[in-house]
Amino acid sequence: MLDVRRIEAATPVGRDRGVDALRAAAIVGVVLGHWLVTAWERSPRVVISSPLAYMPQLSPVSWVLQTLAVFFLVGGYAAARGVREPYRSWVVKRLGRLAMPVVPLLLAWAVLGVLVSVLNGQPIESVYALAKPALGPLWFLGVFAVLTALTPWLVKAGPVAVGAAVAVVAVVDLLRFGFGVPGVVGWVNLAAAWLVPYLLGVLWARGGLSPRRTGPWLLAGGGAAALALVAWGGYPAAMIGITGQTVSNLSPPTLAAVCFGLAQSGLALLLHEPLGRLMRRPRLWAPVAMANVGAMPIFLWHQTALVLTVVTFGLYGRPDAPSWVLERLAWLPVVALVLVFMTWCRHQLDAGRRFW
Hints:
The structure is a single chain. By secondary structure, this protein is mostly helical. It has helices at 4-10, 17-37, 51-54, 62-65, 68-82, 87-99, 102-118, 124-135, 138-149, 151-154, 159-178, 189-205, 211-232, 255-278, 282-293, 295-313, 322-351; strands spanning 39-42, 46-49. Strands 1-2 form a two-stranded antiparallel ribbon. The longest helix is centred in the C-terminal third of the chain and has 30 residues, at 322-351. Mean pLDDT is 89; it is low at 352-356.
């Protein structure tokens, strides 16, 4: 069990608990979203699949569980608040914290790949299908690391920079979908799209925007624009990538995803203060504090926990019916326990003390 009193006593007086609650909510959204939409079929080799490919009517669920924009918003806020001189020592320390969970993940998958291939008798294509979703979060880490390193310069930017980043995404989409420019151009949006919520976080930290005034506009305007682009602009309804789908809102990010991120950012700004007040309750704060301690490892390792569960219990199958969704929901506690155990082990190794 969590030691609620010890966690409360160890929390610094000036800790922004509202921001931590937003980060924890983003973690929960991404983790649950991935666990619910990632599937593997075996026919006879293992291939990646998704229930949204067979049941597109479930696409609105992705609007609830795709919370990456909140990650970048909170990340920009925290980085801007924490910028220190000299720059070199600050950035080395910050990037070191981000990179620390990566090496164990890569080593673990080097071993898992061999075990799955040799002991489970899977061809290399099947190993790739299992490893791809598990290692996919590394793209997030790469983009996040670049933006973090640029934070000392981004703090000098203003609201115009946010608009410029949105304009870049819009122009790239126009070139891709309107003029048939090769799809590789779309990867410019990988930086431009996530720069938008990150810059909003930086502005927020520097007092460049008021959550109460800006939040409603971002929520209403971004949400309306995202709905319009999906309804009349030909963008996919799902805010995540779907196996077999020609156009994805995330790979690379589209204007619809950016508008959706603006709406999410607006909602996060509005919820910041109410969540901060709720987090004054020690029993609510304790799990949020623990989620923040392990935020990056949880994000990087959660799909590996799912893969281990699927391979161990043979949970392959076509996700083409509501019964599959119910079965996956029933297995989520097992996957969560695997992830908790993995995170606990990581803390024990890093800190040499108990957190539970």
